[in-house]
């Protein structure tokens, strides 16, 4: 795992910046769009499914309301017919009728039945006795069979209440095998049956029917078309199924006519029976289904709408394609923008790399052109500034090398035949001693030491203590030359003696004070030399009370370049060696003396 991670990190690190940016933009763009699309699709699906559940359940309830209206009328009529006095007299009269009398009675009962059950939805209505089947002639009900049939048993269980019998196949229910191969319109029926226990007389009293005979039975038959006329118009989803079943699972009606008059007991039937009404989500034959159900109050049967979820979401297909198309457009536009942004970042960096290669080849004059104020623009501008500084440093280094070579040449010139110079000075010294010229002898010895310091010590820097000793010898000679013209005072921090300083860096300033500063006085000149340490800086001050100078003169001195060993040269040497934060600062006023401050870093 760690090996794969390291390989992946190495792969990312070795990718070009352009590809990294484009990949990053692609991920940052496509991932949110995908998440938003999935979230939107899921949210839309949930809303559509929820709305479908609500609307389907509402349709089922509306269907049940219509069915209840129809079936309650049958229930009311079945109760009303038991109050019919004429029917009471007919069924309670137990005399034997002739055939012609039965036909006449049948017409009377038919008219009574017609009065109470004259509905389009009623296929046939009957009053069945043990001696004759009165009523509609649409269905040939066997006379001797009925009281042993399942219908009669169901009616007896009702004990005078109207019982609804789920859809059955006529030929099987009445054992009419001779009609099985005949195309009859009453192949499937569902019925309402009721034992007539008593009838109301005109006296508004309930009298039991003759107990010595079998009770008459009210039979009302319906075709399943009663349901289809209401339900099929609401079948709006593809592959959806609508059926009505009893609490035992007997199919009363099914939009799939091949599943009529059978018993099915799905695992969710018990939940529907207990809850009466609601929604269930189940998987049926590998498909996720929404099952909306509601109980028909008049019969106790359950109306069920089974709708495949994919049929509900069929309307989302176009939305899904639209989301994909919109996502493709957005991703394309985003990638174009990302490519434009990455190019705007990479292009100046590529230019920068080209210039860096040229710098590596020694060409420091090329600049990167950029017209922007962002981070890339700042980077390029800083690079151009760095390039200028490098070029300046190269030029300064070149000048420094030239000056160093000139100094070496001067040093070599000074060293020409030093043995001859030393011998000559030694001869002059002995002559001065013989003539008792002690001051001259002392001056010659100082000069010899000075020549030895400059001739043999070719280093650019030396200890301040050594350089100060040389300066003191130089000042001694100058004091003898300008007798009684000035006095010298030293305030030197002893800690500074062991730090390195540029060789002879104080001499030009001391010389300037003696020769120029004291040029208009004969005596009373004061030259003060101070050395101290401030934090990490060595500060040297040369101060005189001479004639001073103007700011213009100071500027001329500092800008003077031909003077290779003068004041401006010292300042340039210091800044070349240590940086521009160090160097010489001159403060002076005409007739008010001069103060020179020299700052050096502490170097051991």
UniProtKB/TrEMBL annotation:
Subcellular localization, as worded in the UniProt entry: Cell membrane
Could you name the Gene Ontology cellular component terms for this entry? plasma membrane
List, for all copies, the residue spans of the domain called HAMP: 343-395
- What stretches pass through the bilayer? 21-41, 321-341
Annotated PROSITE patterns = HAMP
Q: Which Pfam families match?
A: HAMP, His_kinase
Keywords attached to this entry:
ATP-binding, Cell membrane, Kinase, Membrane, Nucleotide-binding, Phosphoprotein, Transferase, Transmembrane, Transmembrane helix, Two-component regulatory system
Where is it mostly found? Answer: membrane
Q: What is its EC number?
A: 2.7.13.3
Q: Name one GO molecular function term.
A: phosphorelay sensor kinase activity
Domain of life, per UniProt, equals: Bacteria
UniProt xrefs under SMART domains: HAMP
> Which class of enzymes does this protein belong to?
transferase
Task: Answer whether the UniProt record assigns the keyword Transferase to this protein.
Answer: yes
How does the record say this protein sits in the membrane?
Multi-pass membrane protein
The protein's matches in Gene3D superfamilies, at most eight in alphabetical order, are given as:
6.10.340.10, Histidine kinase-like ATPase, C-terminal domain (3.30.565.10), PAS domain (3.30.450.20)
What is the protein name stated in its UniProt record? Sensor histidine kinase YpdA
Q: Which gene encodes it?
A: ypdA_4
């Amino acid at each position: 795992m760690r090996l794969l991670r390291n390989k992946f990190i190495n792969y990312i690190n070795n990718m070009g910046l352009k590809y990294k940016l484009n990949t990053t933009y692609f991920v940052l763009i496509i991932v949110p769009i995908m998440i938003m699309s999935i979230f939107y699709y899921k949210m839309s699906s949930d809303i559509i499914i929820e709305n479908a559940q609500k609307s389907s359940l509402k349709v089922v309830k509306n269907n049940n309301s219509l069915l209840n209206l129809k079936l309650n009328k049958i229930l009311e009529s079945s109760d009303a017919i038991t109050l019919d006095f004429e029917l009471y007299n007919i069924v309670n009269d137990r005399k034997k009728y002739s055939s012609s009398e039965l036909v006449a009675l049948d017409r009377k009962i038919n008219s009574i039945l017609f009065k109470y059950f004259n509905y389009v939805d009623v296929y046939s209505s009957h009053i069945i006795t043990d001696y004759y089947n009165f009523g509609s002639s649409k269905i040939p009900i066997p006379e001797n069979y009925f009281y042993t049939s399942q219908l009669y048993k169901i009616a007896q269980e009702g004990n005078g209440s109207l019982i609804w019998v789920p859809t059955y196949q006529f030929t099987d229910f009445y054992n009419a095998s001779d009609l099985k191969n005949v195309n009859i319109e009453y192949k499937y029926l569902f019925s309402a049956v009721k034992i007539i226990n008593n009838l109301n007389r005109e006296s508004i009293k309930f009298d039991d029917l003759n107990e010595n005979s079998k009770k008459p039975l009210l039979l009302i038959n319906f075709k399943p078309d009663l349901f289809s006329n209401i339900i099929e118009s609401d079948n709006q989803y593809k592959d959806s199924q609508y059926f009505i079943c009893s609490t035992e699972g007997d199919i009363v009606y099914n939009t799939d006519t091949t599943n009529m008059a059978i018993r099915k007991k799905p695992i969710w039937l018990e939940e529907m029976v207990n809850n009466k009404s609601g929604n269930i989500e189940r998987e049926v034959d590998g498909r996720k289904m929404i099952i909306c159900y509601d109980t028909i109050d008049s019969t106790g049967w359950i109306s069920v709408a089974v709708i495949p979820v994919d049929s509900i979401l069929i309307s989302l297909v176009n939305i899904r394609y639209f989301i994909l198309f919109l996502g493709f457009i957005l991703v394309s536009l985003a990638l174009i923008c990302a490519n434009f942004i990455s190019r705007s970042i990479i292009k100046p960096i590529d230019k920068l790399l080209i210039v860096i290669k040229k710098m590596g080849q020694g060409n420091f004059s090329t600049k990167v052109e950029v017209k922007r104020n962002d981070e890339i623009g700042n980077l390029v501008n800083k690079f151009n500034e760095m390039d200028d500084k490098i070029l300046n440093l190269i030029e300064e280094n070149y000048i420094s090398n030239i000056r160093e070579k000139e100094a070496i040449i001067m040093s070599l010139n000074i060293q020409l035949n030093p043995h001859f110079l030393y011998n000559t000075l030694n001869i002059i010294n002995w002559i001065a001693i013989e003539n008792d010229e002690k001051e001259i002898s002392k001056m010659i010895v100082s000069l010899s030491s000075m020549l030895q310091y400059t001739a043999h010590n070719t280093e650019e820097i030396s200890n301040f203590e050594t350089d100060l000793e040389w300066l003191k010898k130089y000042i001694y000679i100058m004091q003898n030359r300008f007798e009684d013209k000035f006095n010298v005072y030293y305030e030197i921090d002893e800690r500074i003696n062991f730090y390195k300083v540029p060789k002879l860096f104080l001499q030009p300033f001391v010389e300037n004070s003696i020769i120029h500063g004291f040029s208009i006085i004969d005596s009373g000149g004061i030259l003060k030399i101070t050395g101290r340490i401030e934090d990490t800086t060595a500060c040297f001050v040369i101060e005189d009370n001479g004639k001073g100078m103007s700011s213009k003169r100071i500027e001329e001195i500092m800008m003077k370049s031909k003077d290779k060993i003068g004041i401006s040269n010292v300042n340039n040497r210091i800044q070349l060696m240590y940086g521009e934060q160090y160097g010489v600062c001159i403060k002076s006023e005409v007739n008010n003396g001069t103060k020179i401050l020299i700052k050096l870093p502490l170097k051991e």
